[in-house]
Design goal:
The protein is an alpha/beta fold. The chain has three domains: 15-44, no CATH class; 67-131; 135-203, Histidine-containing Protein, Chain: A (2-Layer Sandwich), CATH 3.30.1340. 40% of the residues lie in helices and 20% in strands. It contains eight helices and ten strands. The chain has helices spanning 2-10, 46-51, 67-76, 85-95, 101-107, 112-123, 135-151, 178-191; strands at 14-16, 23-28, 31-36, 53-57, 60-64, 161-165, 168-172, 174-175, 196-199, 202-203. A hairpin with a 2-residue loop joins strand 2 (23-28) and strand 3 (31-36). The protein starts with a helix and ends in a 13-residue tail after the last strand. It comes from Mycobacteroides abscessus MAB_030201_1075. This is BON domain protein.
Length: 216
């Protein structure tokens, strides 16, 4: 965000720090530009930007947030003071074919309002019931990611423990090199775009000599 703000300042825009801690404002004359860098406690990082999809907006082609990320943000806004499902329901109907609903479930698991809304989508048959959030869904994701770790040539690991918790996946275990450890995180993000990866996998010290053996 600091680099983006600096670029706008160099271009002649006037910066202003609002009381909110998730955006910065910039003015081009009377035109306001919001720099949103942490909506709903979800940082706009390199992975978030890489998921953006180029779209035509009038005469301009620009990267646009994915339908999945948009749906996650819309649901995480819901709380006891903002609980009108109507506008969000219209959005969900319009973009349902473009949304990775499994990822939406994972990323909004901590919100009871999101849970209620997603259950409504299942009841209205906007989202298939097979995508409903259950322990079976989480167990399926964990088993499927372990399978991918075993079969992907970049990882080829059988013993990595996988635990999904909301929009985070924790990896634990031991591998023989740092490159393979890094590839585990890459494969995890490919399986669940937008997921936060806690990579606790250790690299074994293959250069350390083993214990001496007595030969008689």
């Amino acid at each position: 965000m600091p680099s983006a703000a600096a670029a706008l300042h160099e271009a002649g825009l006037r910066l202003e720090d609002p009381p909110e801690n998730w955006l910065t404002k910039a003015y081009d004359g009377s035109v306001l530009v919001d720099l949103i860098f942490c909506p709903n406690d979800r940082p706009v990082d390199a992975n978030f930007l890489a998921r953006a999809e180029p779209m035509q907006i009038g005469p301009t082609r620009a990267p646009v947030v994915t339908a999945t990320d948009l749906m996650v943000d819309k649901l995480l806004v819901l709380d006891s003071h903002r609980c009108d499902f109507g506008p969000v329901l219209s959005i969900a109907r319009a973009i349902r074919e473009q949304v990775d609903w499994r990822q939406v479930y994972r990323s909004t698991e901590q919100s009871p309002y999101a849970t209620a809304f997603l259950n409504l989508l299942v009841g209205l048959e906007i989202v298939e019931s097979t995508n409903a959030r259950t322990n079976d869904t989480r167990q399926y994701d964990e088993a499927e990611l372990r399978r991918r770790f075993a079969e992907d040539a970049r990882t080829a690991e059988l013993g990595v423990q996988v635990t999904f918790n909301g929009d985070t996946v924790a990896l634990d275990g031991e591998v023989d090199c740092s490159h393979r450890r890094d590839m585990l995180a890459v494969v995890a993000r490919e399986y669940a775009p937008g997921i936060q990866v806690r990579n606790m996998v250790r690299v074994s010290d293959t250069g350390k000599p083993g214990p001496a053996e007595m030969i008689s």
